[in-house]
């Protein structure tokens, strides 16, 4: 079965000094445009579109490795493709694209 949506985990309060970072999940279609994805994510995270720098990780990325960049349509396509492949192979694990605010010093 080929999946059509992906769960995305977004950090909240990453731009607030001393704010408690929490996470919220949204579902996005795998064929979403970069502009739509970026604007939805930035709006939910309360980030300025012009200044936002995002990265991502999946469960099989090492914790200490830096997040993969998510700054253009090609990088989003690669992230969604990787998520689709992970979902096709997953037996019980929920595959989640975890977004990181690269501007914040306390991701």
Question: Would you give an account of this structure?
Answer:
This protein has 107 residues and is α+β, with helices and mostly antiparallel strands. The protein has one domain: Ubiquitin-like (UB roll), CATH 3.10.20.90. Helix content is 27%, strand content 26%. It has 2 helices and 5 strands, in the order ββαββαβ. A 5-stranded mixed sheet has the order 2-1-5-3-4, with helices on one face. It is globular and about 40 Å long. The termini are far apart. This is PB1 domain-containing protein. It comes from Pisolithus microcarpus 441.
Write a concise synopsis of the structure shown.
This is PB1 domain-containing protein. This protein is an alpha+beta fold.
Which characteristics define this entry?
107 residues; alpha+beta; Ubiquitin-like (UB roll); five-stranded mixed sheet; 27% helix
Strand order of the largest sheet: 2-1-5-3-4
Largest sheet: 5 strands, mixed
CATH C-level name: Alpha Beta
- Series of H and E elements: EEHEEHE
Give me the count of strands: 5
The assigned structural class equals: alpha+beta
Number of helices: 2
What is the residue-mean pLDDT, rounded to a whole number? 91
Instruction: Assign the CATH superfamily.
Output: Phosphatidylinositol 3-kinase Catalytic Subunit, Chain A, domain 1
C-alpha Rg, in Å? 13 Å
Tally of individual domains: 1
Organism: Pisolithus microcarpus 441
Protein name: PB1 domain-containing protein
